[in-house]
Amino acid sequence: MTDTTMMDTINTYHAELTAIRRDIHAHPEMGLEETRTAALVAAKLRAWGIEVTEGVGITGVVGTVRGALPGQRSIGLRADMDALAIPEQTGLPYASTNPGVMHACGHDGHTTMLLGAARYFAEHRNFSGTVQLIFQPAEEGRGGAIAMVKDKLFERFPCDAVYGMHNMPGIPTGKFAIRKGAFLAGAGRWTVVFKGTGGHGGATPHLATDVTIAGAQYILALQTIVSRNISPLEAAVISVGSIHGGSNQSSNVMPSELEITGTQRCFSPATLAILDTRMTELAHAMAAANGCTAEVALHWGTTPLINHADQTDVAVTAARALVGEGNVNPDSPPITGGEDFCYMLEAKPGAFIMIGNGVNDGGKTHQVHTPHYNFNDDIIPLGVAWWVNIIREELSLR
Predict the structure, then answer these.
(1) Nearest residue to 361 via CA among 345, 380, 382, 376
(2) What is the pTM of this model?
(3) Which of the four pLDDT bands, split at 50, 70 and 90, describes residue 360?
(4) Same domain as 32, residue 131
(5) Residue 2: what pLDDT?
(6) Rg over CA atoms, the chain
């Protein structure tokens, strides 16, 4: 089958897929709560004659399509389904009907594009092996990938390789970006609580242990980690997001507790370990220097997402076949956002690619995780076709 014939077929799905995407957009669900979305996905897969397993990793869905030609290889294709706790401000006719929740990252589009590929595979089974269509819950920090892996995803649905795709605002429509090795960052959050005696800030400050000084010194000391503990050739970020202590109604009271929170990012397991160690050591050191104690909680929502070399080549080939060599960047700069597809890539070889979501008129682009963001329905056929080309490369789809 030629690329033109494939695209002609996929384009006939476009109107239906757009309607599906907008329906999902209008009914967003938070991670591990995607009951309506999962039911929609399962119903569509069954309607197309695809074998369906529900409840994988709580609310995940897996569709299995077996090729008509001999072959033992099995390839996983993954899309995410969950939304974010952001009040939508797009004003769209299909805007969120769930107050305070919206599809602000394009997972509605990701799910839809994989559904389009599922329909294509159901109608064109002339490939050698098996396609596992993985619809993952809870990518946005609630542990969906880990939940599916712990639920024996790859034992129950064997995959020789697994692929993922995400839209990227600011990349023009018709372009793709990827890189071998570390592509997305390990992304975490941290909380440090300094505890002291508290006291009267005007009359007896000398009798108190001052958590505000410990906190101030810690904030400054944090910035020495990247500059003095991390190689200049490595990238890392530590940022403070909130500081809470005392009351603005009692400005003469020295607080007994001070909470500081923030985020941390890095691109290698070695750097991740250094951040964990030094952020903890410095908290306790600053506390001890001021007669206080510290409680430290570090959580990594994702580890660095590492693209495997061979599968990255497959992803690039699949994209170039669609849009041409000049529209595929195989050496994209690393991205400091996190993606829990990293855990699937720790379990199986694979690759993760970015598809351009387009640039708005005048060059202004609403980024993901903002209340005005919207997935670009024009790229649905291109995303479907990329999935199809992955199976052409991996399982010799004809």
Answers:
(1) 376
(2) 0.94
(3) confident
(4) yes
(5) 57
(6) 24
